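Try this one yourself first.
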C-alpha cells in the first residue's frame, strides 16, 4: 500500500482499478514507391484498412452509444460519414495513381495539405472539420500500420484514469460514465482540466508528479478528491475505512441539498446571490438542482472546443438560448470566447507561443478575428430577448480594450438591426477583473461596465506570477496572499463607488473557508461549480455580516497569507466547531 498526496481538484471518493493512459507515440510513417503492377494490391490494402476502421467505429457506436455523451456519439458518427465519403476516397485514389507511393504516405500528405487549407478558411464549419479529418486519417493509417489505437471515448469498463497530463480536449471526449476517478501527474486546482472534473462531478487528484510511474495498470486505487490524496493497493482496513467515508460523503452531500430552497442571507439579513459556473448547456439542470440563482459564468469557449461542434452563429444561438430558456427569469452571464492559453482552437491557435498564458488569448484573440467575434456577439444579442442575458468580456487589461469591445457590441447591434433581428438594447455588459492592472484601475473601468466579475484563477496566476497549470509551483498560488486580497478589495470598492455589483467567479468563490472573508469584503455575488453551492450557502446563512466584516478588516491588516489562513481557520473553528 502507498499513499500519495497531490492537489485536490474535485471532491468525492472513488475506488476502482487503475487505467494507465499514456500518450500514443506518434508512429513513424514509412515512404516508398509502389511498382505499377502492384498498385491494385496497394489500393486493396487501403480499402481493407478503411473497412476495418469503419467496422471499429460501428462496433463502438453499437455497443456503447447508450453510455456515451451526445458529443461522443456525434464525433463517432462524423468519423463514420467521413470513412464512407466517396469524394474523399476518390481524391486519395487520384493522388495515389499519380504518384505511386505507399498509401499511408499519400494519405498523410493529402491530409496535411487539406488541414492547412481548411484551417484558414473563413467558414468556421470547415475550420472545425480539420480535427476530424486528421483523426479519421490517423485511424486509417494506424490500421495500415497495424497499430492498435485507443481513445478515451472507447472506454467500456469503470476505471480510475491515471494520466500524466489530460488536456481539456481529452477530458471532453472521454467516456465520462466510465471514468470514476482521475489521477494526474500534472495540473493544479484552477487548471481548466480541474474545472472540468468538477463540472463532471468526477473525484480527481492532480499534481501528483509520479503517479504514472508508481501505478501499474489494473492496480486498485482510492481517490480521495477532497483531501487530495490517493492510495495505491490499499490494505483491507484502509479499504473498509474509505468505503465508510464514501457512504458518509454521499449522505452529507444529500443532507446539504436541504439548503437549496433557502436564500443566501446572513443571520443579520444581508443578502447575496449564489450562482453556478457552467461549461456546457447540459449543466444547467445540475445548476438548478443545487439551487443556483442564475449562471454567473458560462465559459462559451467549450462550445468551440467540443469535438464535432461547428461554432456557427445558429449553433451558438441555439446553445445560448437553451441555457436562457432553462434558467427562465434567472440571470445568465455568458462570457465571450476565452480561447488561448490551455484552450487552443485546433489549427487556428498553434501551440508555438512562448508564453501562451500571456499571449493570444481571450479578447485579444477575438479582437484580431472580427468576424468570429461579431458572429458570437450577434448570436448573443439575438438571445437577449429570450431571458435575462448579461454578457461578459474576459481578460480586459485597460480602458482602450474595453472601449474596443464595446464598439464591437455596437457594430453587432447594427448588424442585427439591419437584419431585423430583435435584441435587448439595455442588456448588461460586464467585464472580468482578472489582470492585476485591471484591478488597479477598477475605478476607471467601472465607469464603462455594468458589472464586474473577479476572476481569481487568473488574478492569482498573473498577480503572483504562478502558472496555474504547473504543479511544481502551485504552493505559491495562495488566494489569501495579502496582495490578492488587496486586488479584491480595490475592485469591489471601485464597483460599489460606481454603483455596480461585484461578483467573483474564480474557484475561490466555491471555497467554504473563503466565504466569510469574501462576504466581509463586500462581495455581492458568488459564482461557482454547482455542487459547491449548498455548503457555501450553509456558511452564509450561519454567519453574521458584522462578524464577517471584522474578519475581513483583520485579514487586510495581516502581512502574510499564512496569518490570514490561520485567522480564517480560527474563525471557522469558532463559528463552525463541528467542521
Ligand atoms: C478566472 O480566471 O478566475 C476565471 C473564472 O476564468 P477561467 O478560469 O476560465 O480563466
Ligand atoms: Mg480567467
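Now uncover the answer:
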Amino acid at each position: 500500500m502507498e499513499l500519495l498526496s497531490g492537489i485536490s481538484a474535485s471532491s468525492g471518493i472513488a475506488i476502482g482499478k487503475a487505467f494507465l493512459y499514456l500518450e500514443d507515440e506518434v508512429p513513424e510513417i514509412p515512404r516508398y514507391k509502389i511498382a505499377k503492377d502492384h498498385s491494385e494490391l496497394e489500393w486493396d490494402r487501403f480499402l481493407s484498412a478503411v473497412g476495418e476502421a469503419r467496422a471499429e467505429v460501428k462496433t463502438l457506436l453499437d455497443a456503447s452509444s447508450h453510455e456515451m455523451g451526445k458529443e461522443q456519439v456525434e464525433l463517432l458518427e462524423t468519423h463514420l460519414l467521413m470513412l464512407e465519403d466517396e469524394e474523399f476516397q476518390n481524391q486519395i485514389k487520384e493522388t495515389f495513381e499519380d504518384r505511386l507511393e505507399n498509401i499511408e504516405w499519400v494519405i498523410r500528405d493529402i491530409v496535411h495539405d487539406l488541414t492547412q487549407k481548411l484551417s484558414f478558411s473563413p467558414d468556421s464549419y470547415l475550420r472545425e472539420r480539420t480535427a476530424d479529418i486528421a483523426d479519421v486519417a490517423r485511424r486509417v493509417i494506424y490500421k495500415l500500420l497495424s497499430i492498435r489505437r485507443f481513445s478515451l471515448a472507447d472506454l467500456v469498463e469503470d476505471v480510475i484514469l491515471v494520466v500524466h497530463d489530460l488536456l481539456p480536449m481529452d477530458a471532453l471526449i472521454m467516456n465520462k460514465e466510465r471514468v470514476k476517478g482521475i489521477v494526474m501527474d500534472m495540473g493544479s486546482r484552477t487548471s481548466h482540466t480541474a474545472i472540468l472534473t468538477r463540472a463532471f462531478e468526477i473525484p480527481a487528484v492532480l499534481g501528483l508528479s509520479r503517479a504514472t510511474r508508481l501505478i501499474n495498470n489494473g492496480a486498485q486505487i482510492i481517490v480521495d478528491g477532497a483531501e487530495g490524496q490517493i492510495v495505491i493497493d490499499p490494505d483491507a482496513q484502509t479499504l473498509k475505512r474509505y468505503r465508510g467515508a464514501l457512504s458518509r460523503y454521499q449522505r452529507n452531500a444529500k443532507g446539504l441539498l436541504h439548503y437549496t430552497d433557502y436564500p443566501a442571507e446572513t443571520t443579520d439579513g444581508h443578502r447575496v446571490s449564489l450562482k453556478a459556473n457552467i461549461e456546457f448547456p447540459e449543466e444547467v439542470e445540475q445548476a438548478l438542482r443545487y439551487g443556483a440563482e442564475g449562471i454567473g459564468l458560462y465559459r462559451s469557449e467549450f462550445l468551440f472546443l467540443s469535438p464535432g461542434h461547428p461554432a456557427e452563429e445558429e449553433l451558438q444561438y441555439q446553445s445560448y438560448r437553451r441555457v436562457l430558456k432553462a434558467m427562465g427569469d434567472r440571470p445568465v452571464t455568458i462570457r465571450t470566447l476565452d480561447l488561448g492559453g490551455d484552450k487552443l482552437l485546433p489549427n487556428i491557435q498553434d501551440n508555438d507561443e512562448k508564453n501562451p498564458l500571456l499571449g493570444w488569448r481571450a479578447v485579444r484573440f477575438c479582437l484580431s478575428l472580427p468576424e468570429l467575434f461579431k458572429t458570437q456577439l450577434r448570436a448573443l444579442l439575438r438571445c437577449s430577448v429570450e431571458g435575462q442575458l448579461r454578457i461578459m468580456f474576459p481578460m480586459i487589461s485597460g480602458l482602450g480594450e474595453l472601449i474596443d469591445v464595446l464598439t464591437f457590441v455596437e457594430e453587432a447591434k447594427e448588424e442585427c438591426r439591419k437584419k431585423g433581428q430583435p435584441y435587448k438594447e439595455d442588456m448588461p455588459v460586464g467585464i472580468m477583473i482578472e489582470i492585476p492592472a485591471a484591478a488597479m484601475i477598477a475605478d476607471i473601468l467601472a465607469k464603462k461596465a455594468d458589472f464586474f466579475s473577479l476572476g481569481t484563477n487568473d488574478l492569482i496566476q498573473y498577480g503572483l506570477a504562478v502558472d496555474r497549470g504547473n504543479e511544481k509551483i502551485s504552493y505559491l498560488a495562495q488566494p489569501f496572499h495579502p496582495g490578492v486580497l488587496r486586488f479584491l478589495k480595490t475592485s469591489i470598492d471601485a464597483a460599489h463607488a460606481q454603483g455596480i455589483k461585484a461578483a467573483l467567479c474564480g474557484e475561490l468563490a466555491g471555497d467554504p473557508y473563503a466565504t466569510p472573508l469574501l462576504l466581509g469584503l463586500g462581495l455581492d455575488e458568488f459564482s461557482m461549480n454547482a455542487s459547491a453551492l449548498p455548503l457555501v450557502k450553509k456558511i452564509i446563512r450561519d454567519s453574521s455580516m458584522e462578524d464577517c466584516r471584522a474578519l475581513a478588516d483583520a485579514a487586510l491588516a495581516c502581512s502574510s497569507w499564512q496569518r490570514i489562513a490561520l485567522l480564517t481557520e480560527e474563525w471557522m473553528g469558532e463559528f463552525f466547531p463541528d467542521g
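Discussion: The chain has three domains: 2-23+150-234, 36-144, 264-575. The chain has a mean pLDDT of 90.
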